[in-house]
Structure formats: C-alpha cells, structure tokens
Write a structure and sequence with these properties.
The protein has 612 residues and is mainly β. It has a single domain, classed as Maltoporin, Chain A, CATH 2.40.170.20. The chain has helices at residues 2-18, 22-35, 61-65, 72-76, 145-148, 412-416, and strands at residues 39-40, 47-48, 55-60, 82-86, 94-98, 106-110, 113-114, 134-141, 155-161, 168-176, 180-190, 194-205, 214-225, 232-244, 258-270, 272-273, 277-293, 303-321, 324-339, 343-360, 365-376, 380-392, 397-408, 422-423, 431-443, 447-466, 473-496, 499-514, 521-522, 529-542, 545-556, 561-573, 576-583, 602-611. The strands form 4 sheets. The chain has a 22-stranded antiparallel β-barrel. A hairpin with a 3-residue loop joins strand 11 (180-190) and strand 12. The relative contact order is 0.13.
Length: 612
C-alpha cells in the first residue's frame, strides 16, 4: 500500500512539472503575493499559507458564505479528512475527528487560544462560534504536539474571528423544517481608538424526531482598545445549549436522555512588535458546565453535573536573525473540576515550546525542528519533538514532509467516571504516537492542489475491556494502532463572463490496523472514514444570484456508506440577502455515530438585512 502512495505521488509530480510554462509562472507570482495576505496564526512562527510545510486547509469567509452550512459542525464536514459525527441538526451535539483519531485527539483553538475540555472530548465542539463572527478557519492535519501541546494528537483546528471592520448592523432570521426558528443580530462598530464586534443569536427547533428538540443561545463580543498605540484585544463568548438527546450517548433504546451545556471563554491579548522581535502575551479563562439527565422526565433516576474551569496564561515570541526565525513560548494553566460523579479535581500544567525555521538554498529549502516539554501535576514530565521540511521546486510546486511525536492526556472521564456499566482507571497513562507525512503542494492563480500520504503508529490508546460478561467495562491502556492513508485536495476558480465560479474536490483514504488485544471483551471499535469524498460547486449565472451544491460520500471501516447532497441559493438585493438552504435533499437514510439516524430533507429559508 505504501508503494502505491509513493507511486501516485511520483506520477503527480511528473504531470505537474511537465505542465509548467512561462504564463503560469507569471500567474503564480501574483497568486503568491495574494497568499501572503493569509498568515497562519495558530503557531508561534507566523508564515504565509504558501510557505508552510504542513497539510493546512484554509476555509475563508467567502467559502463560508458558499457552504450551504449554518454552523461550524456542518461546515467542517465538507472537507475530506475531517470527520464530524453529528447527532441531529444544527450541530447541536457533534464530535470532531481528524484522520481517524478519536473525539478527544483533535485540539480546537479560538484565535489561538486552546479550548480543550479536561472533562471529556464530547464538549470540544461546544466552543464552536457562530459563523457570522468567523473570518476563516485553519485546519492543521498531522502531528501537532510540538506546536500546540496536549491533545493535538491528530491535528488542530483554529477558528479565527473577524477583525475590526466598518460600522455595520446585520439582522438575520431563518425558519424551516422541524420547527426551526433562528434569529441573530450582529453589530460592528469602529471608533477613533477602539473597535467592537457584537453578536447575539438564538436557534430553536421542535426536533426531527421524538426528544431531539433544542434551544441554543450564543453571545459574542470582540473588542480592540488603544488601537492607535499598543492594541489590546479582548474576546468574550458564551453559548448555552439545551437539547433532547434521544439515543445520543447510551444505547439507542435510551430515548429520554437530556443535556444542558454552558460554555464560555474570556481572552485578553496584545502584540508587541519591533524590527526583529514579536511578543504575544495572552490571558484566558474557559468554563464549561454540563448537566446530563438519563430520563428527562425524572432526573432523580440518574443525573451528572460537571463544572470545569481552565485558567491560563501564554507568552509566545518570534525572533528574526541572520540564522532564521526562532519561535518560543510558555503556556501555564490550571484546571479545576467539580462533579457529582468525577469528584473535586485540579491539575496544574506547564508547556515550554521551542522551534526554529532555517531557510537554505536561496530560501528554497526550509527546515523547522522543534520541541514541546510538558509538566502535568498528575502526569509529570513529557517531551515531544518534531520537524518540518519543505523544498520549493519552483514558484508553483513545493514538496514537504514532517515527523513528530504526539500525545493525548486522559480526560477526567477516562480516569474517574463510574456508572453501573463502566468504570475509569486513575492510573491511566497518556496516549502516545509517532506520525509521519509526505506531501506535495501546487499553487497557481486559479488552481491549487495538494497530495499527502501519512502514517501514524499509536500506543497506549485507552480501551474499555472486561473478562466476563457480568463485569463492568474497565478503562485501560491496551490498544496499539497503526493508521495510514492518502489525501488529495484541489480547488479551481474560474469566470463565466464577469461572474466568479469555483469547484472544490477532495478525497481521503484511511486504513487502520489494530494490534491483537488479549482480553475476552473489548469495547474499542475503529469506525473511521475509510473513503471520504467531498466536492462543492459554487456558481453564479446571474448578477447578485449565486448557488452552491455540496456532495459528500462517506464509507466507514464498518462497511456502512452514504451519499448526501446539500444545496443553497442566495439572492443579494443590496441591503437584503435572501437564502434557501437544503440539506440531504435526496432523503438519504444514514447515521454518523451511535446509531443516531440523521434527519432527512432539512430546509431553511433565511432573510438578512444589512445597513451601515
């Protein structure tokens, strides 16, 4: 299989190199200048998109508009290699996976702030912001521990919020299937020495089947003060979700489950910059509260209430010298957990980061070694090195590779959770892996493509096992897993007359190999996306009218497969925008996780009024 990967890579290199000509080179120079405006901000060394030696996907604000998605969960599912396993509509409860990892092996960041949840990875997507306040999303795939620290086991996703903009008030309403009613207000204000972005929204639904109703409220404020001198940026977010969870977590027969979550974030940061040195200090506080009720009508039967607080301080720096660019930083944080099931817990953690970018051979070759050293009060010291290498074959073509150790700290659920059927283990070790990747990027003015092959050898993965049928499932470090795969991405932008069109296609193949487990019963189940195809065609044939159609094919290692088509139509009438969004237009019957059936034929009509 590996030979096939490298054969495909060699063929692609040959085809692309032979297709070069002088006209394309001129277009490439323009494209490279445009891409320099997109700086990957999630690491310590800020690099233009085209210069990174990692597999990174950028979802721009224009992509979001054309996505036929109303929330981050639905949006991310349109990109191969990202496995969003949803339960119901509007991303009310969804788990995030990258390249076959688990729902706690992908790190989520908001403007570079790590918002991992120590209680359980099921709450990762609670922090996903409303798409109205998002400027772009950076998807970083592959080993990322040396860049981000804990829980970037298979990759990371950084949601970048909008910067200050002109004065604007936007009012939006949507209504559609299953009693969905959405309303939002977004206000942007630019003053002489400060700027502000405020968003409030509420989304409700009766549910697409019994006990899947929801009520979701979002509040967001981003302010920049003292912007004419040393700007200080503050971000505040609060999300409350209340939803019926029919079959979401226990067996499909548990139809009366119910959950309420509250997630908030406060971050304050600034940037001090001179000719050679850039300093980026930051303070943040993330809070999550989760109330789970097994029988909605009678909470006394079984109820969990967890409150998790993470308070942290980061200091990152970038120094330019004749030897290249050095990035270094420290992240200090403390986690507090209060739970009726998990007990009273706290954890102190410190991470030191160091990396250096060398540019050699007339800046065609870049080499970036780095290391992260962690201390956890309950897991002691760990070191995770890695290296990225890239070589520009010409202005349009770059080959790159990276290798690194990566890890995941067990959640408090893994360590201490107890119920009538399962029990945690407080002596669990962190999950560990070494991952390698080899890739190729081709970028021109109107067309870009990438190919990557990757391999990950993981050990100490946490499984729940038992020896006898009457025993409780016991958490333990027992699983060893090899994951290898291939990923292809392409995007083509073109015009019909003066109207913009775009076509995006991507494909990911995964192959998992679980090592033998010497126990009688194991709960560990690999159900990755073995084949994952996504494509999106965004067109405009009439001025002020645009439409998109999104196709998603998923085949899991279990053999289950599905094809889903979404579509959207947008009409722009100066201050008014009218939209129609249709999800699963062919009524495909399928599930994404825990045998929860996904809704059919979800239709939303929207009206937005923008005035300045």
């Amino acid at each position: 299989m590996k030979n096939n990967y490298f054969l495909a890579l060699s063929i692609l290199v040959s085809i692309i190199v032979n297709a070069q000509n002088e006209q394309v080179k001129q277009q490439d120079t323009l494209q490279e200048q445009q891409l320099k405006e997109i700086i990957i901000t999630s690491s310590r060394i800020d690099l233009p998109f085209s210069q990174n030696s990692r597999t990174i996907t950028i979802i721009s604000s224009e992509d979001i508009k054309q996505s036929a998605a109303t929330n981050v969960a639905d949006l991310l599912q349109q990109f191969a290699g990202v496995d969003i396993r949803r339960r119901g509509t509007a991303g009310m409860q969804a788990d995030l996976y990258i390249r076959g990892g688990s729902f706690d092996q992908t790190l989520l960041l908001i403007d570079g702030i790590k918002v991992d949840d120590a209680q359980t990875g099921h709450h990762t997507m609670n922090m996903a912001l409303p798409i109205e306040v998002i400027e772009r999303i950076e998807i970083i795939k592959g080993p990322a521990a040396r860049v981000f620290g804990q829980n970037a086991f298979t990759g990371a996703i950084n949601i970048v919020t909008k910067k200050s903009q002109d004065n604007l008030v936007s009012l939006g309403v949507r209504a559609g299937s299953f009693g969905q009613k959405n309303a939002s207000v977004t206000v942007a204000s630019s003053l002489e020495n400060s700027s502000h972005l405020v968003h409030v929204s509420r989304n409700i639904s009766d549910g697409y089947r019994y006990n899947t109703d929801y009520d979701n409220q979002n509040y967001f404020i981003k302010s920049t003060f003292n912007k004419n001198a040393l700007p200080i940026e503050m971000i505040t977010s609060f999300s409350e979700r209340k939803f019926g969870a029919n079959g979401f977590y226990a067996s499909p027969s548990a139809i009366n489950q119910y959950e309420e979550t509250q997630t908030s974030l406060i971050g304050v940061s600034t940037e001090i910059k001179n000719e050679k040195l850039t300093l980026k200090p930051r303070l943040y506080w993330r809070r999550n509260q989760d109330e789970y009720i097994y029988v909605r009508q009678d909470p006394s039967i079984y109820r969990n209430l967890h409150q998790t607080n993470k308070v942290g301080a980061e200091f990152n720096a970038e120094y330019n010298s004749s030897l290249g660019v050095t990035g270094f930083g420290v992240d200090v944080a403390k986690v507090y957990l209060s739970s009726n099931n998990l007990g009273q817990r706290n954890r102190f953690m410190t991470t030191l980061f160091l990396e250096h970018l060398f540019k050699l051979a007339d800046e065609k070759l870049d080499i970036t070694p780095g290391i992260a050293v962690n201390y956890f009060s309950d897991f002691k010291f760990h070191a995770f090195p890695g290296i990225d290498i890239g070589y520009k074959l010409n202005n349009t073509l770059k080959i790159y590779g990276n290798i690194g150790y990566t890890y995941r700290i067990p959640t408090y659920t893994d360590l201490y959770y107890s119920d009538p059927t399962s029990i945690g283990d407080e002596n669990l070790d962190p999950e560990e892996a070494i991952a390698e990747e080899l890739g190729l990027k081709y970028i021109t003015k109107n067309f870009n493509a990438s190919l990557a092959v990757f391999n990950r050898d993981a050990k100490k993965l946490i499984d729940y096992v038992k020896e006898n049928t009457e025993d409780r499932w016991q958490a333990t470090n027992i699983v060893e897993l090899n994951t290898k795969g291939l990923e292809l991405n392409s995007n083509y932008n073109f015009k019909l007359g003066k109207l913009n069109q775009s076509l995006n296609m991507s494909y990911t193949f995964l192959e998992d190999d679980i090592k033998s487990i010497n126990v009688n019963f194991s709960r560990y189940s690999i159900n990755s996306l073995k084949h994952h195809v996504t494509s999106k065609l965004s067109t405009s044939f009439i001025k002020n009218v645009s439409q998109s159609i999104v196709y998603k094919y998923a085949e899991r290692t279990s053999g289950d497969s599905s094809s889903v088509v979404d579509a959207s139509l947008n009409l722009n009438l100066k201050a008014f925008e009218i939209s129609v969004i249709a999800n699963n237009i062919f009524n495909t019957e399928y599930t994404e996780t825990n045998l929860v059936p996904m809704p059919k034929g979800n239709l939303l009509f929207g009206l937005t009024y923008n005035f300045k």
